[in-house]
Design goal:
431 residues; binds alpha-D-galactopyranose; alpha/beta; 16 strands; eight-stranded parallel sheet; six-stranded antiparallel sheet
């Protein structure tokens, strides 16, 4: 009440100073422009109907990227069949820019590394029928300043103070997606919801100028609970720290902890996804079983699928895992639900269920976190289904059979089994 009175007095004073008509008109114009920008951001998100899929440069290349690296990966995305399987973004992560600007404040890049500038690589990606992603930081100095990875520390490699200028620049270059990191934001103690709102609005204004929608990927590692505020402004938001740090080998513990941290099912809906981080499927050090377990967890989560391995050198086995159409369909299910834990009969032996589009359909993960092989049971009652139900083992492509009340199978240590369960009877509860 007091605040409202103070606000009215301030507004009245403003009206008296500026004169009725012009001040009202200006406030109305600013309001309309802000609304237009927010609408543009919202439209970009509305166009997203499934978790974004693609490839991102960070996990394999860290900051050591240039035109040739991105071009080779773009080509491999197409020739490997990943594009046909639904992977569509080629996301340039940290390392493309060393924080330099011209006298007007526009970002400048090393044209030895990026001939034709960033527009040329975005054009190349588009020429293959794919979408292009780029990367910056919400703060003044990006992660490449605080944690240099293969290049000297780069001060000024964030967009703070230049939000409108930079996002308009990305949009003019042709980028369709922008990941905004939080190293500078974090070090400077910025408020994440406020900063990302300003960024989302700047992206909206860029879109109203260029006509090109650009998706925002919020990357503040779960700080300040982005699942509570990011769904209004972005298609995906990171929920944890990195799944792999520069120079490390893949770790199943990190896969599991990132999976756990992403569990915010209430925040997820079509166009809005919890992001447990880019995939490490196919990176040196992971077995096929580990790759399948990792992808099963991302799929049941309905997470964005951004491959992070070297697509130009991957094995046929890795390619087959990444392009498995039934697994991808579970991830991309149009309901956009996040699978949740529905049972844990013994510590570390867990059952996750994701409601799929249609009637009586579930994706189920039987996850064995323990160090020894164990039986895990999915009971239809835990999945909200009345039996009987048919079971398909997704990775082995075997129709296992029809079961009255549930299904039990043996799951090796530290791996998961992915099932498609369909209630067969008329007593099925829908949904
Ligand atoms: C952070 C992000 C990573 C990656 C690096 C780049 O750590 O979480 O995904 O973008 O920065 O430095």
């Amino acid at each position: 009440m007091v605040a409202q009175t103070v606000l009215s007095l301030v507004l009245a004073a403003a009206v008296l100073t500026a004169g009725h008509t012009s001040s009202h008109a200006r406030v109305a114009d600013a309001g309309m422009a802000a609304q237009e920008a927010q609408d543009a951001s919202a439209d970009a998100i509305k166009a997203v109907t499934a978790p974004p899929m693609g490839w991102a440069s960070w996990n394999t290349f860290a900051a050591k990227i240039d035109y040739n690296v991105i071009k080779a990966q773009t080509d491999a995305l197409v020739s490997s069949g990943l594009k046909n399987a639904g992977y569509q973004y080629v996301n340039i992560d940290e390392g493309w820019w060393q924080g330099t600007r011209d006298s007007a404040g526009n970002i400048t890049v090393d044209t030895g590394e990026w001939p034709g500038g960033m527009k040329a690589i975005a054009d190349y990606i588009h020429s293959k029928g794919l979408k292009a992603g780029i990367y910056t930081d919400a703060g003044r100095d990006g992660c490449g300043y605080y944690y240099p990875t293969g290049r000297p520390a780069a001060p000024g490699s964030g967009s703070e103070g230049h939000y409108d200028q930079d996002f308009a620049q990305f949009s003019r270059w042709g980028f369709d997606f922008v990941k905004v990191d939080w190293c500078g934001g974090n070090a400077e103690g910025l408020d994440a919801p406020t900063s990302y709102r300003a960024i989302s609005d700047a992206i909206g204004r860029a879109t109203t100028r260029t006509g090109r929608p650009m998706l925002l990927s919020v990357c503040n590692w779960g700080n300040q609970s982005p699942w509570n505020w990011a769904p209004g402004m972005s298609a995906m938001w990171r929920t944890s720290q990195d799944i792999i740090y520069y120079g490390e080998s893949p770790s199943m513990d990190r896969v599991l902890s990132n999976f756990d941290s992403a569990q915010h099912p209430g925040a997820q809906s079509p166009g809005h996804y919890n992001d447990p981080d880019m995939l490490i499927v196919g990176m040196p050090g992971f077995s096929a079983a580990q790759n399948r377990t990792h992808l099963s967890l991302w799929a049941i989560s309905g997470a964005p699928l951004l491959a992070g391995n070297n697509l130009a050198t991957m094995s046929a086995e890795t390619r087959a895992i990444l392009t498995n159409r039934e697994v991808i369909a579970i991830d991309q299910d149009p309901l956009g639900r996040q699978g949740t834990k529905v049972a844990e009969d013994r510590s570390g032996l867990q059952v996750y269920s994701k409601v799929l589009d249609g009637t009586g359909k579930r994706a189920v993960v039987l996850l064995n976190r323990t160090g020894s092989t164990a039986d895990i049971t999915a009971r239809w009652s835990s999945l909200g289904l009345n039996g009987p139900a048919t079971v398909r083992n997704v990775w082995t492509e075997a129709n296992v059979g029809r079961f009255a009340g549930g299904y039990t199978t043996s799951v090796p240590a530290h791996t998961a089994v992915l099932l498609a369960v369909t209630a067969a009877g008329s007593g099925t509860r829908s949904g």
